[in-house]
Design brief:
The complex is a heterodimer of chains A (about 130) and B (about 110). With about 130 residues, chain A is mainly β. Chain A has strands at about 5, 10, 20-25, 35-40, 45-55, 60-65, 70-75, 80-85, 95-105, 110-120, 120-125. Chain B has strands at about 5, 10, 20-25, 35, 45, 60-65, 70-75, 85-90, 100, 105-110. Chain B is about 0% helix and about 45% strand. The radius of gyration of chain B is 13 Å and the shape is globular. In chain B, strands 2, 4, 5, 8, 9 and 10 form a 6-stranded mixed beta sheet that branches. Chain B has a 4-stranded antiparallel beta sheet with strand order 1-3-7-6, with no helix packed on it. Classes of the chains: A mainly beta (about 130), B mainly beta (about 110).
């Protein structure tokens, strides 16, 4: 079955860059039927979608407006993984960060989107 | 961007039926998905689309939608169903097709 394994530091200093990686097993980052997301969760913001990367004959990225100026999500096909970089972090970026796969199913009469596989989460604290 | 609204907390007696709702403009265009989250764990998909359950999700979980409201129903709630429940959906209110989450509903099984 598909699994996502997250890695990265749990402590980042203010103004620096938060970097996390999500390694995929059981699927491909280049899949034409999946997209690869980063989501974070904090008591103040709840679950917040940050962005995603996906391949449909070429690579695309979508980013949330709230972080668009600071975020980069990159696929790494050689390692079958994708990464999150969030620049210029502040204590407001303290959260549990998750990676997740989203899928699309469609027919002539319906269209479904859902996030069916999640990583275990990485707690990231922004503090000096 | 669009928002999804959920009641912060709901309770249900053991073995009874409970409905958790999610409201938002994006639900007029896209189906909601529902996720169960227990303390210290990642969210788990329990319902997606019109009323689809991933493999391994008990059939006491069901979903429905009407207009701008999606509902998750648990028929015969069990003690292990006590958790936070979140809805999400695609959202096309911006320039791109993004994702939006509800604020979550804490379900207590009495």
């Amino acid at each position: 079955q598909v699994q996502l394994q997250q890695s990265g530091p749990g402590l980042v200093k203010p103004s620096q860059t938060l970097s996390l990686t999500c390694a995929i097993s059981g699927d491909s980052v280049s899949s034409n039927s999946a997209a690869w997301n980063w989501i974070r969760q904090s008591p103040s913001r709840g679950l917040e979608w940050l962005g995603r990367t996906y391949y449909r004959s070429k690579w695309y990225n979508d980013y949330a407006v709230s972080v668009k100026s600071r975020i980069t999500i990159n696929p790494d096909t050689s390692k079958n993984q994708f990464s999150l970089q969030l620049n210029s972090v502040t204590p407001e970026d303290t959260a549990v960060y998750y990676c997740a796969r989203d899928k699309r199913e469609d027919s002539s009469s319906w269209l479904y989107y859902y996030m069916d596989v999640w990583g275990k989460g990485t707690t990231v604290t922004v503090s000096s | 961007s669009s928002e999804l609204t959920q009641d912060p907390a709901v309770s249900v007696a053991l073995g009874q039926t409970v409905r958790i709702t999610c409201q938002g403009d994006s639900l007029r265009s896209y189906y909601a998905s529902w996720y169960q989250q227990k303390p210290g764990q990642a969210p788990v998909l329990v319902i997606y689309g019109k009323n689809n359950r991933p493999s391994g999700i008990p059939d006491r979980f069901s979903g429905s939608s009407s207009g701008n409201t999606a509902s998750l129903t648990i028929t015969g709630a069990q003690a292990e169903d006590e958790a936070d429940y979140y809805c999400n959906s695609r959202d096309s209110s911006g320039n791109h097709l993004n994702w939006v989450f509800g604020g979550g509903t804490k379900l207590t099984v009495l």
